[in-house]
Amino acid sequence: MADTFSLQRVLETFRSSLSEKKEVYIKYYIAGWQELVAFMNSLGNVFSFISKDVVSKIQILENFLSGENRSHYVTIQSMVKYELENDLVDLTKRGSHPESGCRTLLRLHRALRWLELFLERLRTSTEDSKTSVMCSEAYNESLAQHHPWLIRKAVGVAFCALPGRDTFFDVMNAGDHTQVVALLGESLPLIAEVYQITEDLYAKNNLLELP
Ligand code: 1PX
């Protein structure tokens, strides 16, 4: 991972995460998240409680990827099959498998929906649009529904510290505004596709509400 964030690299990692059979490689999925964490860290300390949580979830998945059962953790599809067949998932309440791959990835999956909604707003925004408003609208439509009151409040405070739209566009390192908008237009269908494939897989296996 290079020091500076680039939207192009996020796009490339999510592109690499899709196999020909439309399965999702966990390795690239979490690489995409690592890039996003680097971006969030560059925005300042107010976001560290958010990035810490993402980092710990990435770590849980990385441990599976390098552990003795790694052959089952190549794609999200193989992980779901393996963990379900071997009773490695707490399905209704937290018990002996509080950190299964399935429940951990579900948290990132829900956050990916936030990202999709936020980037779509950013893509179609105008000069006077506020990033804090775009962020919180996207949040309320997605992740907020899974977060308790206290987290929602803390997230609201963090949103107020977001830099403006111009800074966002600059930090993405993808050229001028028109180029960023074009790249967002290219990235969003990919992110949406990865999201939808995961969503369908989780829905089919009744995993969307894992504790
Ligand atoms: C190109 C620009 C894109 C900006 C990239 C920013 C990436 C943001 C990534 C946010 C990821 C949040 C993951 C949250 C996972 C989660 O829901 N965790 C909760 C549940 O976990 P548990 O193990 O307890 O069941 C956990 O309680 C979460 C705690 C921290 C709060 C998470 C708030 C998420 C707010 C999303 C908006 C981020 C705004 C960043 C601005 C750039």
From TrEMBL:
Gene3D superfamilies associated with the record: Glycolipid transfer protein (1.10.3520.10)
Protein name listed in UniProt: Ceramide-1-phosphate transfer protein
An MF annotation (GO) of this entry: ceramide 1-phosphate binding
Domain of life: Eukaryota
Catalytic activity entry: N-(hexadecanoyl)-sphing-4-enine-1-phosphate(in) = N-(hexadecanoyl)-sphing-4-enine-1-phosphate(out); N-(9Z-octadecenoyl)-sphing-4-enine-1-phosphate(in) = N-(9Z-octadecenoyl)-sphing-4-enine-1-phosphate(out)
Primary localization class, coarse: membrane
Family affiliation: Belongs to the GLTP family.
Assigned keywords, A-Z: Cell membrane, Cytoplasm, Endosome, Golgi apparatus, Lipid transport, Lipid-binding, Membrane, Nucleus, Transport
GO biological process assignments: negative regulation of interleukin-1 beta production
Localization in the cell: Cell membrane; Cytoplasm, Cytosol; Endosome membrane; Golgi apparatus, trans-Golgi network membrane
GO cellular component: cytosol; endosome membrane; Golgi apparatus; nuclear outer membrane; plasma membrane
Keyword tRNA-binding listed: no
UniProt lineage: Eukaryota, Metazoa, Chordata, Craniata, Vertebrata
Domain Glycolipid transfer protein: 26-173
Alphabetized InterPro entries for the sequence: GLTP_sf, Glycolipid_transfer_prot_dom
Membrane topology of the entry: Peripheral membrane protein
